Amino acid sequence: MTAGIDPAANAAMLEYAIGQAAEGEAAMLFTPEMSGLLDRNRKRAASHIVAEADNPVLARARAAAARHGIWVALGSLAVAREDGAWANRSLLIGPDGSIAARYDKIHMFDVELASGETWKESSAYSPGEQVVSADTPLGKLGLAICYDVRFPALFGALGDRACDAIAVPAAFTVPTGKAHWHLMLRARAVEASAYVIAAAQAGSHEDGRQTFGHSLVVDPWGEVVLDMGGEEAGVAFAKIDPGRIAEVRAQLPSLANRRAIPRSSMT
Question: Which CATH code is given to the segment(s) 7-254?
Answer without folding.
Answer: 3.60.110.10
